[in-house]
Amino acid sequence: MNDNTSPSNGQNSGPRYWRSLEHKADSPEFRAFVENEFPSGVDLIDDPVSRRNFMKIMSASFALAGLGVSGCRRPEHKILPFSRMPENYVHGTPQYYATAMPTRGAAVPLVVKSYDGRPIKVEGNAEYPDSNGGTDQYAQASVLSLYDPDRGLNFKLAEKNDKGEKSLKVIAKAKVLEQLDGLANGKTHVLMEQSSSPSRARLVAGLKAKGVNFYEYEPIDFSVHEEAADIAFGPGVRPYYKLDEAKAILSLDCDFLGTEESAFQHIRGFAEGRRVKDDHKENPADSMNRLYSVEGLLTLTGTNADHRLRIPTGSVVRVAALALAEALDGIGLDGAEDGISQLRAFAAELNKDFSNSHAVEGDAKADTAKWVRQCVADLIRFKERGDKTLVVAGYRQPREVHLAAMAMNALLGNVGSTLLLQKANPSGNGTIADLVLRFNDGDTLVVLGGDPAYNAPADIEWAKLVGRAGRVIRQGYYIDQTATDADAYIPAAHYLESWGDARTSDGTLVPVQPLIAPLFGGMTELEVLARVGGTESDPYKVVRKTFEGIAGSGDTRWEKFLHDGFLAGSASGVESREYDWDAASAAWDAGAKPVKLPGKNDYEVTFYRDHSMDDGRWCNNGWLLETPNPVTRIAWDNVLVVSYQTARELLGEEAAKEALDFEKLDKKSGGLPGRFGFHSDAGRFYQKVYKLEVGGKTVEGPIWLLPGMADNVVGVALGYGRERGRVGGAAGFNAYRARTSSEAHFAGGAKLTEKPSTTYEVACTQEQGVMDGRPVIREGNANDFNGHKDFVKHFDLDSIHHTTHIPKKGARYKWEKDRTDLASSPYKHNFGGESNGPKLMDPDRQQWGMVIDLGTCVGCDACVVACQSENNIPIVGKHQVAIGREMSWIRIDRYFSGDEHNPQVNYQGVGCQHCEDAPCESVCPVNATVHDEEGLNLMAYNRCVGTRYCSNNCPYKVRRFNYYDYNRRPFGVEDGKRKPGTFFNDDNELNNSPLHPGNKSSNGEWELVRWYKDPSRGSVPGLDDGKKENGEFDPEWDLVKLSKNPDVSVRMRGVMEKCTYCVQRIQRGKIEQKVEARDTDNVKVPDGKIKTACEQVCPADAIAFGDISDKESEVYRLNRQNRNYSLLGFLDTRPRTTYLAKLRNPNVNMPDYYDIPNSTSEYITKNHGEIFGVNANAKKAEELQGKESSH
Amino acid sequence: MSDVFPRWTNRLPGQIIFGLLLIGGVVTAGLTYFFTPKYTRVGYQPTQPVPFSHSIHVQQLGLDCRYCHDGVEKSWYSNVPAADTCMNCHSAVRANDPKLEPVRASYQDQNKPVEWVQIHKLPDYVYFNHSVHVNRGVSCVECHGRVDKMDEVRHEKNFSMTFCLDCHRELSPKNGDPNKRLRPLDKITNLAYDRWGDTDNRDKDFVKEWHIKTSENCSACHR
Fold it and tell me: Residue B83 is nearest to which of A79, A83, A1074, comparing CB atoms?
């Protein structure tokens, strides 16, 4: 049955993973794009210095060089030792401190690495009991915000000019702080962000006693979890989810893997429950957990689910009702009959298949009610087997959905096991609405953190409130809108700059320990509150006093607390409570309202927390901005996301037939027009701009088609459109303007109208680095696995049946004696044997390799940010990303497979594969990329002359080229003023070479002249040239330099770079081992001692790194798993990075059950393959049959 | 017509070629001599703010290198001592010597470091590590020469890339005696140590015993 014709011919080979609709449609533009090594325009150097000009200047400078002989003298460098050596300090060795990053209601326990007093890298605290050392992308990027040159640098007071306009002027700190005196009375209203800090609670309690009013506002508020638990289980508790113990999880619009609070901890728990530890021994069908997801958006949780139901966000409450009814029915509860019928009536609409407006009539897969029924039946089955399950509801959902979820957990016996009820102390502070009600004209308003002027709900009318205030005092990190409106401005200290404390999600007390003194004298909210209260305002003493109140006094206790980074045993107590059916059903009756179904031009808007910006708090963080959204793969912007069907309807049927009809496009030469995707300039996305109108408010933004969204739902990310800040100031649009407090998360009745003849360029990394038509991700079903353990070896050319093009039995190299096929292992080398082959594999040295488990990777992008932080990867800016020059060493590829309405999604992290037989090395004319004896593919920057041949020859497209001196990119200044959003679309600043004639930021001065005056200044822009804004201290990008890792070279213009497996960490590990070994032979680095940055940050532990020749190591073990395969293995590049195939765990009884995952199924059909006992002919016959029966 | 070019011009091409070759040769020779680290670095001996003599401190007083350079075994960087290290002795010995004024000033005032002039410097893209060398049998003397004999420190070796590689290559038996540069760890800071005079250790094969593996690859120094 095996057809040995090469399947690599033509576009149909390989499973049809498609990375976007354009790809799936396979338009000519797309093909042209794929066939180009770089998107067009990449080669276009738009430097105004032409070659001719260059020659002129060079000859002139050579002539000048003769005159300046004195410049040839060896420059004298000074060594400045300490006056007195600090204790335990050794210059050149990093120091690590335990600290924590406070989040809304929790904290991320961290260990931060500091070099010469500069914090440069954040890691998770692996000692913390509920942690593997992983963190999220926000914590990784937070260190860059510390060195943000746009942060508030000075204490300021407002002054009025002749016309009565207020503007902030720099004033001495002490003078500004006088404003805080005499505020401890009832006329003061303090608006803060949420916080878990016990010190803050203590100070607030003290001030409340004096009459001060306190309010909290979070634009994205997770407290609905706690609110619902207080109703369902009685007051004073909050839920804590233990995902690792749940065998089946039902998520009701709960994006616990992406945008919920402490998602990194949930990822860890979920991955623990999902991991197939050893597929030689265990049966994945028994050991893996199963995830059901119900959602309106396409989130990380939904894309990782085994079964996904897409339904408008506002209708999830119906699913919750039906699910609860099914659970009550199935498990049985006395006196619940009425309730069941009420719930069923509430959910009746679900039977009408409304969520799948595109579905063919009678399509069993679209039966929503059956989906819910079978899902709940499965949960009950797990319960009967004695396994734990979990039902979770997301923060976007109203309280009623949470009540239903908790009721199901109570019925399923999860309370106390997977759902813990922890003691909680509600803060008792008011809301922003209370603030408006209680505020009297002329009162003092103190705003600590946040940015209500930007993100307060539209109905709050913040500007009016500020107008009523007698005085506004603002403490914040940036000079944002709230600060501009204020009378006094206090710069906030970064969490790495000052003392604080916090409690993690389970209530454990953690210290927020500073690693550096406040760079600009900023103050934390603790200091401000203490100062207002007239108490001790040294934050160290404040925090220590709180600690002593909790844990008792004594230096040893305190020091251990700081050393460990947490207080052992301080987690909140777990309460044992019964579900209060009466209270909950009363709350349900009072609150549950059927939400109108969205329809054509009556859309539902869903606002969501962004993966990069959060609620806007990371607005000026280039690392986060440049990390593409994990699902849309769009960087630097937010967009209006709609489903395929909605896109069709927006276009109108006639136009859609032309634009989005895949069947036709396969044959037609037209391709997708610019409406939703491609512009003819391949690889660049010029999107139509739509006006979104909801509740009388409008916002405008580019439209984006995301397959898998619920129909008639428009997804909008919050946090963009800040209009301040030179990095992110121009990114996206402000969706808060369309958001009201009553409909904070979703709102119906929205209209989309096209803004005629307007397009907007979106930087999407999606179409770049495509591996066209190969089985790059291999996946199977858990229930099939035991019968077909070797299924990954049945794909494509490296399948056992397809290795004819590779000579067997040691013919390729003399030293390969036992090589029979590629698929068995790319590592069948003759370790230690007679070696007349390449010295590549020195048996005496450790051989580095990596295994990435696609089964547990959820695609969260934390590794991308960690890599950027560790390896000094520059920020290139939106325009550079748009033309395909992003620099990330590890990227997450996202693939769709299946139908364009509800596709299956896969993620795959791809960095340099460190091929043993590396194609890049053989084409480098200058030997800049070579192999070492430990199997690393090295990159010597100093040798590189920038031919880019290596990148051209790399099948994985992981090499990145420095088209400009990105690291010297100055922050934009125009006419002596900061220019918002220079990293966005303006590449002028990139041309600041010494030969540049100068632009506005250099005040017209030639760069060469500027460089001659002060060579060490680089290209610091004009603010330093006597045009200081109000005499401000303006350190400019020297500040950004401080964030660089001194262990890694900062690359210059014109060199290639790529993942090095964190060679600096490998060397450090080896050197530390050798130093320890001294005159013994104990030089082998133990497994697990060297961790790459991506491995260390991964909350899912999906990445393993180590010595593949060491039989005791984790990578050795993983390399020998049945699921192990190499990416593009048929090329025989022998990558050192291999992948573990993904397993899905679908439920046979579900209406949308798939007997093999979509991608594998497509592979079989298109590739004449045979996997899982299914071969292509049988598959085709089955498909034909299916088509006939449906007609 | 024959008068247009005089006869001597016949030799001109040859002369030009010879001349160019000569100039080329001289320039090449000049560059090789004057523009390599051998010339530009070796012998560099700047004046230091304090005329500290290694010779007196090591030869006469018997101080170990690590008394002052105490980071050398722990870090990539071998530190120049802080002022308080000097003052350990010099608060009593030669307490009022005017030559020591910068040290005393630094000790009094944190903001007045002694401005030592750096002699040994590697480019910033080279990641040399002291600790891994001195902990594994490579003595200071291999790179810094007989500092113990110097009154004022001078740059002794050329520190070019070949200089590093020569040593790293020697471990291969093809290239001579792999043990030549290694010595017992207690003799690391004994700059006068003579391996061939040390009969106990002369025949020991440290490379094998300690499992020494040098790297000649880019990753050893460039990251």
Answer: A83
Residue A250 and residue A378 in one domain: yes
Does B113 contact A938 at a Cβ distance shorter than 8 Å? no
ipTM: 0.90
Q: Is residue A677 part of a domain?
A: yes
Cross-strand bridge partners of residue A750: A603
Considering the domain architecture, whether residues A296 and A385 belong to the same structural domain is answered as yes
Is B84 within 8 Å of A942 when comparing Cβ atoms? Answer: no
Pick the last residue of a domain from A763, A789, A806. Answer: A763
pLDDT digits (tens, 9 = 90+) for B129-182: 999 999 999 999 999 999 999 998 999 888 889 889 888 888 766 666 778 888
- Alpha-helix runs per DSSP H in A1032-1149: 1038-1041, 1063-1077, 1093-1097, 1114-1119
Compute the half-sphere exposure of residue A807: CA atoms within 13 Å on the CB side of its CA.
Answer: 8
Residue A748 main-chain phi, psi, to 5 deg: -90, 180
The answer to whether residues A793 and A824 touch, using CB atoms and an 8 Å cutoff, is yes
Task: Give the residue among B131, B221, B141 at the shortest CA–CA distance from B189.
Answer: B141
Phi, psi values for residue B194, rounded to 5°: -120, 110
The rounded distance, in Å, linking the Cα atoms of A471 and A466 is 8
State whether A631 and A671 are in the same domain: yes
Domain annotation covers residue A832: no
On whether both A714 and A757 belong to a single domain, the answer is yes
CB A217 within 8 A of CB A474: no
Nearest to A709 by CA among A568, A941, A431, A900: A900
Angle separating helix axes A198-209 and A539-551, nearest 10 degrees: 100
Q: Which residues of A99-119 are buried (b: 16+ CB within 10 A; e: fewer)?
A: bbbbbbbbbbbbbbbbbeebb
In the predicted model, residues of chain A with pLDDT beneath 70 are: 1-74, 350-366, 653-683, 766-774, 796-843, 970-978, 984-989, 991-1008, 1010-1038, 1167-1169, 1174-1191
Type and span of the H or E element at A574: strand A574-575
CA distance A604 to A343: 23
Q: Token pair for residue A918? A: 């590396």
| Residue A774 forms part of a structural domain | no
**Paired tokens of A852:** 């990435």
Chain A hits for B81, Cβ within 8 Å = 81
- Residue A899 to residues A312, A703, A902: CA-CA distances in angstroms? 19, 21, 6
Answer yes or no: are the C-beta atoms of A675 and A658 closer than 8 Å.
no
> Is B161 near chain A, with CB under 8 Å?
no
- Contact between B187 and B139 under an 8 Å Cβ cutoff? The reply is yes
- For B:80-109, CB contacts with A below 8 A are 80-85, 106-107, 109
Q: Where are the alpha helices (DSSP H) in A848-948?
A: 862-870, 878-882, 919-923
Distance from CA of A69 to the nearest CA of B (A): 14
Residues spanned by the domain of A1175: 1158-1190
Q: What is the pLDDT of residues A512-561, one digit of tens each?
A: 999 999 988 889 999 999 988 887 788 999 999 999 999 888 889 999 99
How many A×B Cβ pairs under 8 Å? 142
Contact call for residues A996 and A947 (beta carbons, < 8 A) = no
Contact A539, A526 (CB under 8 A): yes
Handedness of CA A357, A358, A361, A366 (dihedral sign): negative
